[in-house]
Amino acid sequence: MKIISALLLSLCLSPILMSQTTQNPFLQQGEGKQLQLTEKGASHFAGLALACLQQEYPNKLNQVLKDSSMLQSPSALHPAFYGCFDWHSSVHGHWMLIRLLKLFPKLPEAAEIRQKLEDNLSEANIKGELAYLNNASKSWERMYGWAWLLQLRTELLNWEDSDGRRWSKNLEPLADAFVTRYLDFLPKQQYPVRTGVHPNTAFGLTFALDYARASKNESLQSMIVQKAKEYYLLDVHCPASWEPSGEDFLSPCLEEANLMQRILPAGEFNLWFQKFLPKNQLMRLRQAADVSDRSDPKIVHLDGVNLSRAWCMYQIMPKVKSVRIRSMLQKAAGQHLMASVPFIASEHYEGTHWLASFAVYALSVNQ
Questions:
Q1: How many whole angstroms separate alpha carbon 361 and alpha carbon 310?
Q2: Which residue in 18, 179, 252, 264 is deepest, having the highest Cβ count within 10 Å?
Q3: Does the model's pTM come out above 0.90?
Q4: Any alpha helices (H) in the chain, and if so which ranges?
Q5: Domain count, the chain
Q6: Contacts by 99-106 with C-beta closer than 8 Å and gap 24+?
Q7: Domain for residue 293, yes or no?
Q8: Are 151 and 205 in contact, with CB atoms under 8 Å apart?
Q9: Which domain holds residue 254?
Q10: In a domain, 1, yes or no
Q11: Could you tell me if residue 11 is inside a domain?
Q12: Are the C-beta atoms of residues 286 and 336 closer than 8 Å to each other?
């Protein structure tokens, strides 16, 4: 009876979602009704990153000044990742362009993308980034920027492309330095950071685990699995009713679940998931966040929480045993995407310098 009910619910709601996607040229419904990116959408999002990848100002430098030698321009401090307002947004803008080249090799912007990546990801520029990192505070970009840098190299490691192999080799020393930071820091971190913004530990471990597996780094993988279990294995009743906070771009509950589905076998994960997000709490996460002012740099974070919730739901779904819950997660992910993807335009730099990357990850996470 539960299976029949879930199927009927899907049949009732999927035409609504389908009609919405046909009105949006950036989205299409792929196999299994998961929303995916169209080539037109890829071109639009590529344009947003291309416009800011080498745009130095406005810029938010997140640094502790040790001395006056650090009072330099963004491009002097960060020769590779100085655009798109801040360091981590520049990093995931580079990641997005590589993902789009892999998904749509004949994208109209392909030649421009390759040229800008060639300019920015040179061996000399990455040495400059490494020099900055070696002089930066221990907590600089921890763990959000760390995670996105490793995600960038993961994307390159999984790409059979001559340019991609060269850029991957150039990035290797910087990626190694961030791996060292993970391995140095995690044994000291007794408690996870559960906020819905940059320092979230679950998010930082998720992308790092992907990198550990892609690069076959057993030490990093073992450390992440160990710490994830220490932090989260006994967690129950995540307070989903507290989400989202007013400036969240990550869901603390779903980011944690998304990490745990990576490290636990399906049977163990389902037992954990039922206790961590019982049905009454999980249902509270179906409603997409309302973004009241996309010109406000904090309120627009809520577009990010819609997009990151969607990618968590898509990644959690295959591990969930219940057909009804899988159906609910799929529909909720689509609704979250529809609440934010159509509004990622070029009007407000507060969102456009970073949200396209979130949209592309959510729309291509299982492709």
A1: 10
A2: 252
A3: yes
A4: 2-22, 39-52, 74-77, 87-103, 110-120, 123-135, 144-157, 162-185, 201-214, 218-232, 252-263, 266-276, 279-282, 301-316, 323-340, 349-352, 355-364
A5: 1
A6: 99/155, 99/360, 99/361, 99/364, 100/42, 100/45, 100/46, 100/360, 101/161, 102/155, 102/159, 102/161, 103/37, 103/42, 103/364, 103/367, 104/39, 104/42, 104/43
A7: yes
A8: no
A9: 33-64+71-364
A10: no
A11: no
A12: no
Residue with tokens 């600089």: 140
CB 60 within 8 A of CB 99: no
| Helical H segments across 215-319, by residue range | 218-232, 252-263, 266-276, 279-282, 301-316
Q: Is residue 274 part of a domain?
A: yes
Tokens describing residue 97 = 């362009």
- Digit-by-digit pLDDT tens for the chain (367 residues) are 333 333 333 333 454 454 455 468 899 988 767 899 999 999 999 999 999 999 999 999 999 998 998 899 999 999 999 999 999 999 999 999 999 999 999 999 999 999 999 999 999 999 999 999 999 999 999 999 999 999 999 999 999 999 999 999 999 999 999 999 999 999 999 999 999 999 999 999 999 999 999 999 999 999 999 999 999 999 999 999 999 999 999 999 999 999 999 999 999 999 999 999 999 999 999 999 999 999 999 999 999 999 999 999 999 999 999 999 999 999 999 999 999 999 998 789 999 999 999 999 999 997 7
Question: Rounded to 5 degrees, what are φ and ψ at 61?
Answer: -85, 120
Can you tell me whether residue 293 is helix, strand or coil? Answer: coil
